[in-house]
Amino acid sequence: MIHQISRSAELTTLSEFRKYIALICSQHPEVDENILYDMQLAVDEACTNIIAHGYKGMNAGSIILSMEINDDYAEINLTDFGHAFEPSRSPAPNLDAGLEDRPTGGFGLFFIYQTMDNIDYTTNVYGNRLTFIKRFNNNV
Amino acid sequence: MDIKFIENKIADTMAVTGSIDALTAAVLTDFMLLKVGEGHHNLIVDLSQVEFMSSAGLRALLAALKECRNKGGDLRISGAQPGVDKVLKMSGFTNILKCFPNNQEALASFSE
Amino acid sequence: MFKNLRVKKYPVQFETRPGSLTSEWLLEDSDSPIILEQINNLPNNIKLRVYRNLLPPGLMIRFNIDPITWKGPDGQLHVGLKADEQTGFVHLWAHKNGSQQDEFFRLEISDNPQRGIDINLIHLNDPEGQRYSTDFDQDGEPTLFGTTRRNLEEERRAMDGGLAPGQIRKNLGASALAFQQIEAFLATLGHRAYFLDPLTYSSAWVFEKRGFAYVRGHKLMDDIQHEFQPGGKLHEALDGSTTFRKSDQWRTVRGRAWAIHDGILENIGEQWDGLRMIKQVGRHAGVDTFPDAEF
Q: Of C225, C177, C234, whose CA–CA distance to C204 is shortest?
């Protein structure tokens, strides 16, 4: 079953997306707190990027969040209709930098890569779609 | 997101409640920089009531940390919950600022 | 034929193929989107067969029009089509008794610069309903749905008669049917989504219900919802200073739409402009900027 909500791409809706993910995951005991946080973090970082860059210069459009969960994994899709994001253009943050050199940006994408198992990004005239897969570790 | 400021001779505590994301981080940054500007150079940021923090929160902490150290003080974290703690670890922030499980230990660290 | 959905590692581009629709092209490719200009360059009879798919057969039958020949019981054509070669525009209209006065369907679609398709206009009017001449001002000049000029007296009558801005007659109540038909047509052409710019607040609300999301303007719709609540700037601006700013208009979609048509958004430093919506074929976005609204 696909669960979906649509909200405007504004910072005020970030918490609504996190709450929605928590709501859907509460129906699935396989999803523990760590997995939930990972998913909320990845979605939060991605939406923050869409809000900051995707709809820059225009009255913000929609972000559509859809989720599908089964026993083994969750698939999350984020669709927006703004400028395409170019992940290859974002430098990875320097984790070993001293205080003076530490960058203040670049962590968003990095966290997405650290927390999600599969990431796919498709962009065309009909919109941009980011897909995350988060696998659950079934204990042996 | 709420911030409570508790003064103490050794170090002041900022007890944050709620979520620190791209929306609320600006408020936190402004508040922390204000306090540092007023002369509070030793700060403990109590994250025990923070259920969620994203990279926006890291930026806020970093900005305040730099200011505190520039003024000869320090900023330390207390009570980070598992998710928030993971964000601090993943980013390597645990290498540049001290984190403690609770306020007492954080406060004690300023006396050493 | 259905294809299994595959997750692709590389970005997938849905390219339209420029050039004419030749039989070689059509033989080898069943998926790439076709644009209206390509169809408009085909022979007339093919155009008729293709564009016939834009009209719900059930709607034609309801008005006693043969869905295949487009003729009424009088043997005359009751449907008009304009789809000129070398253009990307298609205009389609249908009338009940043979004159523009009892037109019940008008659709205008066109290719957009990104080689997608926009719905520029869709009207489903009840030909039996009272007609309000909001489309012409007192000097007989066209108002273009009240955007360039206004006929205030007719607008007032239309508002009191239960219409929303931009309407000259009550709706047919067939918009779900019409959109399903248009969507199926566009999917046949290979498009996965289509676009429109909502003319009014009330039409944007209708399109939300039809499953459209916003390319631009979702934030504006949220702000409007927020500011029409008691205590908000738009709520306060409903001060009766004009006929279209009565104090209770915040409660309904139509009421808000008339106030916005009257320019009330100036109170939040905005205009009704630049909104754009998108409908993904087969998907309902679930956008609801005015929850539990009464039209």
A: C225
